[in-house]
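hey so u asked for the seq, here:
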Amino acid sequence: MSTVATIGAIYRYPVKGLSAERLPAATLRPGETLAGDRRYAIENGPSGFDPAAPSYLPKQRFLMLMKNERLARLDTHFHDATQVLVIKENGREAVRGDLGTPAGRSAIEGFFAAFCADELRGPPKVLAAPSHSFSDVAKKVVSIINLASVAAIEDMVGRPVDPLRFRGNLYVEGWPAWHELDLLGREIAIGAKARVKVVKRIVRCAATNVEPGTGMRDLDIPPTLLRHLGHSDCGVYAEVVAGGTIAAGDAVFFSFPVQSNSTVAEFDTFSAEIGETRFRTEGKAGCVFANLAPVSPTRPRYARPPSPKTGRDKQAPAGGG
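ran it, structure tokens below
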């Protein structure tokens, strides 16, 4: 029986460099990131960021895991409705602040002034601007991690690897290892309506060497990838080209053209079965059936939790972090 790839887990990172937030579902919008992803950043000394004219800046201008691994020791939670960021260390609340107010931002900045004192180039400052994302790339994208590729890295290093080291938005289960790297230029349909186009492979940096939860720099993943594969890529960036709500367990599949001599092209409705999931779409001869809608989708349990060691989220499908 054939199997269908699925979304194993969805994550966003409200503050650049801080811990992940698992989402049961999310709405993708064309040309946008996952809502609230990297909405804030902590400036490490003067960065030149202008909230009135926000633009991409390299991650080295902010606190981030590549250089500031101690950030991974923090358990952070952001509440959209109140804009309150809560930071815990060793299971105890260290600080909370409303990022929409000067007093709240000052509280968070004061915490990082002490927590990262020996790594700061100037006073830390909470940064934000409407509709801006402090992503590692200039384009507004979502990042996709293939869990089979993470499993292949585990084989390379000979020990478990938490997928949250790769700080992805969408974790896909059911693809062969490294399949994502062959998808440049391809469109992927997710669930009933959303579509993304893969635009860039993700070159991994030293942030992946840091264990989520402990802040220990205990692996050497980019050089390991380079030795085994001749590159240090894992995961891909994709632009949202068609919006829609997605959820953990949703099917992930590809657009495909209908040949003019195909019997499928003679019908306005097309149904198919992939494994235990039935799909149905509507279209005309010669169109691209990109939005195959699940008729009776199965939602398999997430067999490989992204974060088996942090223990922050033990629901099924498990996500960790």
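The two ends are 33 Å apart (CA to CA). The helical segments are 102-115, 147-157, 221-229.
lmk if thats what u needed
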